[in-house]
Amino acid sequence: MSSMNGKVVLITGGARGVGAEVARRLRRQGAKLVLTDLDVEPLNALAAELGSDHVVGVVADVCDLASMEAAVAEGVERFGGIDVVMANAGIASYGSVLAVDPETFKRVLDVNVLGVFHTVRAALPSVIERQGYVLVVSSLAAYTASPGLAAYHASKAGAEYFANTLRLEVAHHGVDVGSAHMCWIDTPLVQDAKADLGAFGKMLKTLPGPLSKTTSVEKCGELFVKGIEGRKNRVNVPGWVGLFRFIRPLVQSKLGERDVRKATPTLLPEMDAEVAALGRSLSARSQALEREPAAH
Hints:
This protein is an alpha/beta fold. It has helices at about 15-30, 40-50, 65-80, 100-130, 150-170, 190-195, 200-205, 215-230, 245, 250, 260-280, 285-290, and strands at about 10, 30-35, 55-60, 85, 135, 175-180, 235. The protein has one domain (about 10-290): NAD(P)-binding Rossmann-like Domain (Rossmann fold, 3-Layer(aba) Sandwich). It has a 7-stranded parallel beta sheet with strand order 3-2-1-4-5-6-7, sandwiched between helices. Helix 3 runs parallel beside helix 4, helix 4 (about 100-130) runs parallel beside helix 5 and helix 6 (about 190-195) crosses helix 7. The protein is globular and about 55 Å long.
């Protein structure tokens, strides 16, 4: 029998991509799920697919603490508590520091950093009571930098250090905390960026070796579930991503930045021109969701 059988797992950003893949895998192992998202239709469809007796889908905005507290309360009322939290909801903006829409930049930080805090804050009393596990979804972006993605890199570095600090705060309660670090995953976020920005695809081609490759959502979900089962401090997708935590000083040196510096004078103006033509610094899907108020 799986160690996740009967466990209650809260997943934010659970309607699509990695969140939905992890939900499907954990449900097959007997877990009960509390899924939150702003995307109502796929959220409801996934909850129906996985079985309403074992899944609660809640439309909630991670940027709103009261919204997350209500989602957690609904899960606790239905299933008795929360054992595992996967703070997965995240967005990315397009454009250089001079070109990105300032409100969009702020929203990325709100979702990717404050959203993690709100998710954890709301669920932590129950997780402590059950001596559970928290997985904060960061990124390889916490260890590296890419022109035109300043908000994303800053937010994912913040998410990593939030997880590191939380780990120290709750260890004596029997709670474990991990951070997940992924290279490019074939999620809607990456798909939308490729569709919107030709410069993004060109940037990927300038990256050396495995850094230019995209991992499937299925493989990412498999490694996330293993990390959750093992209550790991870090989940790396693919495994070599973990090396970057140790070679970060080299990656951030002039030598490590050499190739990116060469490409930036050409690709960054191209990206900014594409962003200006789009008239938005978010994907169309993300922007549409941002305009829809969360409801319970």
